[in-house]
Design a protein that fits this description.
Blueprint lengths: L7 H8 L5 H9 L7 H12 L5 E5 L4 E5 L5 E5 L4 E4 L9 E5 L2 H5 L14 E7 L6 E8 L12 H8 L16 H13 L1
Antiparallel strand pairs: 1-2, 2-3, 3-4, 5-6, 6-7
The structure holds zinc ion.
């Protein structure tokens, strides 16, 4: 077992799924937790992306909320593609493939168990326009709004939990902007 179980190197191995079993258990059970684990985690992620924007929070395996300067926080893929303001649903900026027929479902559900087509269900696959990586899949009734998975209160995280408030903290940050984005999209399409 490693001497410093919560070392940055062990976190790197954990992220890659390569941390040996005993170390994994020790790291998970560590009490008290190492206070700088989040910062070490962010540093590892930052080292791995090919761009320099500061990562504020990872929101999936490939997407991050990053700072683009005071008052501007956007969702960015590790390939570099940017989806705009993190308060609006990034899925609206994706390439989308929708599966509705039995034939389309069987391409991915090889042993059955796919959503009930008689109930009007569909599978939506969201791909990054920059790297074409599959980022998310959701199963919904047809016509159901695109699900906004996660709107983090980043200011509260940094202020109340990390005790390191962000310099551009603002009271109106934590508001869903998806409707505004959709309205803008409709206006652009109408002209
Ligand atoms: Zn990408």
């Amino acid at each position: 077992m490693s001497e410093d179980i919560a070392s940055k190197e062990n976190l790197r191995l954990l992220l890659d799924g390569k941390l040996p079993g005993d170390d994994f258990k020790a790291l998970v059970r560590l009490k008290p937790k190492d206070k700088d684990r989040f910062w070490k985690y962010l540093a590892i992620l930052q080292e791995r992306v090919p761009w320099n924007d500061r990562i504020l929070l990872p929101i999936s395996d490939h997407l991050y909320v990053v700072s683009k300067g005071a008052g501007k926080r956007v969702v960015k893929c590790d390939c570099g593609h940017e989806y705009g303001d993190y308060r609006a649903n990034w899925k609206l900026g994706c390439l989308v493939y929708i599966r509705r027929t039995e034939e389309e479902m069987k391409e991915v559900y090889t042993v059955g168990g796919y959503p009930d087509l008689n109930a009007g269900s569909e599978i939506r696959e969201f791909y990054c326009p920059g790297c074409l990586r599959l980022l998310c899949v959701e199963s919904c009734p047809r016509g159901y709004p695109v699900i906004f998975d996660f709107l983090p209160d980043i200011d509260a995280l940094y202020r109340d939990w990390l005790h390191s408030p962000l310099p551009d903290e603002a009271p109106d940050w934590y508001l869903d902007q998806t409707t505004m984005l959709a309205q803008g999209f409709l206006k652009r399409r109408a002209t």
